[in-house]
Amino acid sequence: MGIGSHDAVKQLKALIDQVDEPLKNTFQNMHQGYPNETLVRFLKAREWNVAKTHKMLVDCLNWRIQNEIDSILAKPIVPTELYRAVRDTQLIGLSGYSKEGHPVIAIGVGLSTFDKASVHYYVQSHIQINEYRDRVILPAANRKNGRYIGTCVKILDMTGLKLSALSQIKLLTIISTVDDLNYPEKTETYYIVNAPYIFSACWKVVKPLLQERTRKKIQVLQGCGRDELLKIMDYESLPHFCKREGSGSSRHSTNGSNDCFSLDHPFHQQLYSYIKQQSLSFQPVAPIKQGSFHVDVPEDTKGSKIAQSIESEFQKFGNRNGLTHSLSGLNINGD
């Protein structure tokens, strides 16, 4: 950071030191012992404008309090069958670590259907993984590597991406908005693999709408991206869908423990066990009740614009391919 950057951090820290005690407490839970690094993340998200960053951060802290984010890891999705259904349709997992120590998060974008539970369960699951990453995975990586590691690497598998994905744009926009406003600058690099033509068509439209700092983080790799990814991680840390060309669906693996999307994978077993243990410590007597965790999501006009652009491109793609059915009949998932 330059002199200006240090001054911005100092000014923002002085402003945050003046907030009410509840906001200070949730900020402490959020920064996990690295307050300055957290301030830098938010400053980057607002182009180092202290006033805009202060508003963003205070809004985030209020969001955390109003939605009880500090205790979200004590609210399991029950019963287990429902959680398994969420995991089977929201494909995300931890496959390992990069050579630099960054957690490698795999996301099955193309084959995630989000059709076995309400929107609220999927948002709850996503935020729980974010919080577990920030409170458990990254602190462990810091201890192991003896230095601060505040970001992860994400590998987005586009296998199976279809026109029907249009029905999930609203949910994906909600999740993206949650991340943009409350978990900024947590990803070092996005690697996109197994990209079909439909992705390439949409990418041409979406890329100009992204901020430059975001565009620089995105790399579209050829095929499954194995050779390029092996430059930054060992073979064992590759997601199962990157381990060989033509390996097929990112949804299935011959061994559930090797499929980082599966509930049987060690990451998800540890995550779910951690959440259940936390729920007992928060509510040692009361039984765990079924019910989704509702989170308020502010409107993000930028995200909505991108979603509309993707929808428009899907429409044109369908028309060019002579589809007889109208995409206007597709329902966008809502609350």
TrEMBL record:
Residues 79-239 form the CRAL-TRIO domain. InterPro entries: CRAL-TRIO_dom, CRAL-TRIO_dom_sf, CRAL/TRIO_N_dom, CRAL/TRIO_N_dom_sf. SUPFAM superfamilies: CRAL/TRIO domain (SSF52087), CRAL/TRIO N-terminal domain (SSF46938). This is Patellin-6. It comes from Acorus calamus (Sweet flag).
